[in-house]
Structure formats: C-alpha cells, structure tokens
C-alpha cells in the first residue's frame, strides 16, 4: 500500500472531481509550484494509485436504459470453476461491475440494459448460460440517488 500524505490526498480529490485539471491548475489550487505537483502525479500513476483516467457518461443523455443489480450463487467445487464464471462475466459488456461476496450470495453484478425486454433476453441468454450459476435474483433501480466513483480520503474514515 502506498504511503500518501495530505498533499497526495488533495491531488487525488481534485483529480477525482475533474481529471482534466492540468498541473498548473492543481498547483494553483494547492498553493504549490507545478514541478512537485507534476512529480507527485507521476509517482501516483507509477505506483498504480491512479489506475486510469476516464470520462463519466450521463447514460440518460445518450440512451434510455435501466440499471439492474443481480445477485446470485455459484455451484462450484473447485477454484477453476469459479474462474470460468469470472472469465465469462469479464466478456459481457452489459456487466458494468462485478463483486465476489461473502454471506448468502456469491456475487453481485451491476447490469445496464435498454429496457425490461432486453434485460430479460440478456438474463436468459447470457447470465443463465454461464456455467455454475445457481439461484439468481434481480433488483431493478427505480431512482438513482447518489452515484460517484470518488474514493474519499481514507484518513477521514
């Protein structure tokens, strides 16, 4: 785990708010010169703290869609069988996120679909056909209250 000081956390906070900020803008915001900011950003990238830069798209402005959270269980006896599930899920573009869980469910998927009919087709043809998938439950998002990718400063938690 990388050691991060307050300045690193502030750089990350700013970049999570707007990844298009340049070094000069960040330096000005933090009342520092651009060279140490540039070096810190390069170190954060090199150390893998900054994994990549992405654009967050407002899905409602490009197409009508629904979000579904799908929980399920796996019927596996060996690690290799679990890996088959992981590999299958990684190759399905409608799966936005996938989590391995502890408790009474083995996995949680965040799915995007055009509408209920396309979700039903996706569920029937993609998810139900993945080897070792057991019981599945779908939860449909009615309203998105909060959506962020920003990780808070962990020292504040």
Q: List unreliable stretches of 5+ residues.
A: none
Mass-distribution shape: elongated
Q: Can you list the strand order of the major beta sheet?
A: 2-3-1-4
- N-end to C-end Cα span: 17 Å
CATH class bucket of the largest domain: Alpha Beta
Note the main sheet: 4 strands, antiparallel
Mean pLDDT over the full residue set:
92
Quote the CATH topology of the largest domain.
Alpha-Beta Plaits
The CATH architecture category of the largest domain equals: 2-Layer Sandwich
The fraction of residues in strands falls at: 15-25%
What do we call the CATH homologous superfamily of the largest domain? Lrp/AsnC effector binding domain/regulation of amino acid metabolism (RAM) domain
**Helix count from the secondary structure assignment:** 6
How many structural domains can be distinguished in the coordinates? 2
* Helicity, as a percent range: 25-40%
Explain the overall architecture.
The protein has 157 residues and is α+β, with helices and mostly antiparallel strands. The chain folds into two domains: 6-46, Winged helix-like DNA-binding domain superfamily/Winged helix DNA-binding domain (Arc Repressor Mutant, subunit A, Orthogonal Bundle); 59-140, Lrp/AsnC effector binding domain/regulation of amino acid metabolism (RAM) domain (Alpha-Beta Plaits), CATH 3.30.70. It contains six helices and four strands, in the order ααααβαββαβ. The chain has helices at 6-17, 23-30, 34-46, 59-62, 79-90, 116-127, and strands at residues 66-74, 95-100, 107-113, 133-140. A four-stranded antiparallel beta sheet has the order 2-3-1-4. β2 and β3 form a beta hairpin. α2 (23-30) crosses α3. The longest helix has 13 residues, at 34-46. It is elongated. The model has no long low-confidence stretch (mean pLDDT 92).
């Amino acid at each position: 785990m990388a050691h991060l000081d307050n300045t690193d956390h502030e750089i990350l906070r700013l970049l999570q708010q707007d990844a298009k900020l340049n070094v000069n803008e960040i330096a000005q915001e933090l009342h520092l010169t651009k060279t140490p900011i540039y070096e810190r950003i390069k170190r954060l990238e090199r150390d893998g703290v900054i994994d990549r830069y992405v654009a967050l798209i407002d899905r409602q402005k490009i197409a009508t869609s629904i979000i579904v959270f799908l929980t399920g269980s796996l019927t596996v006896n060996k690690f290799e069988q679990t890996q088959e599930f992981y590999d299958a899920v990684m190759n399905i573009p409608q799966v936005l996120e996938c989590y391995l869980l502890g408790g009474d469910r083995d996995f949680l998927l965040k799915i995007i679909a055009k509408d209920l009919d396309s979700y039903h087709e996706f569920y029937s043809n993609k998810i139900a056909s993945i080897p070792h998938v057991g019981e599945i439950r779908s939860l449909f998002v009615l309203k998105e209250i909060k959506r962020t990718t920003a990780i808070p400063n962990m020292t504040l938690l």
